[in-house]
């Protein structure tokens, strides 16, 4: 068991739909702590760094454009095994396939667009979490 930190983002679709509070509520109800939080419209360069692993994929540019299309809420959460735990709270990447009970499964769907508007991002490993927290919260 390890106390971890993970980087969560409420994406522009979640922000625009007024789901920020609902996402934070689920994080807190699960027992994770909000360690840092900010609202910003992310610059393209920050997103290219954040999504570097997907560079070259067909959805990379639409994804970066979508993510910079409006405000997001970036959050550092903290708790025992919270990286895996938040991925489980978020559900599968495709909201149509995400299980009911998860954020994406309960609140998301396919909107018939090339970008998957799936409400939240969550770090997928301790290495990703450290890298992403450094990108979004260099002051920490
Ligand atoms: P996750 O966000 O579940 O970690 P990922 O890291 O594989 O998923 O992809 C990052 C984001 O890119 C994802 O939240 C939505 C988008 N994406 C992934 N696969 C996609 C695809 N096949 N078509 C369109 N967008 C996609
Ligand atoms: Mg990912």
Automatic annotation (TrEMBL):
A single GO BP: UTP biosynthetic process
GO molecular function: ATP binding; metal ion binding; nucleoside diphosphate kinase activity
Reaction(s) catalysed (UniProt annotation): a ribonucleoside 5'-diphosphate + ATP = a ribonucleoside 5'-triphosphate + ADP; a 2'-deoxyribonucleoside 5'-diphosphate + ATP = a 2'-deoxyribonucleoside 5'-triphosphate + ADP
Protein's UniProt keywords contain Signal: no
Binding residues annotated for ATP, in chain numbering: 11, 59, 87, 93, 104, 118
Subcellular location as annotated: Cytoplasm
InterPro entries, alphabetized: NDK-like_dom, NDK-like_dom_sf, Nucleoside_diP_kinase, Nucleoside_diP_kinase_AS
SUPFAM superfamilies per record: Nucleoside diphosphate kinase, NDK (SSF54919)
Location of the Nucleoside diphosphate kinase-like domain: 3-140
Root EC class: transferase
GO CC annotation terms, alphabetical: cytoplasm
Active site: 121 (pros-phosphohistidine intermediate)
Subunit and partners: Homotetramer.
Name of the protein described by the UniProt record: Nucleoside diphosphate kinase
Organism: Phycicoccus elongatus Lp2
Upper lineage: Bacteria, Bacillati, Actinomycetota, Actinomycetes, Micrococcales
């Amino acid at each position: 068991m390890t106390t971890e930190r993970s980087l969560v983002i409420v994406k522009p679709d979640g922000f625009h739909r007024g789901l920020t509070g609902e996402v934070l509520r689920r994080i807190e109800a699960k027992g994770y702590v909000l360690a840092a939080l900010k609202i910003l419209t992310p610059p393209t360069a920050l997103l290219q760094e954040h999504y570097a692993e997907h560079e070259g994929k067909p959805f990379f540019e639409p994804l970066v454009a979508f993510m910079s299309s409006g405000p997001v809420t970036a959050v550092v959460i903290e708790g025992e095994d919270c990286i895996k735990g938040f991925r489980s709270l978020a559900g599968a990447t495709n909201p149509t396939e995400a299980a009911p009970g998860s954020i994406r499964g309960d609140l998301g769907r396919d909107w018939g667009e090339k970008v998957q508007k799936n409400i939240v991002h969550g770090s997928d490993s301790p290495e990703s979490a450290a890298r992403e927290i450094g990108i979004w919260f260099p002051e920490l």
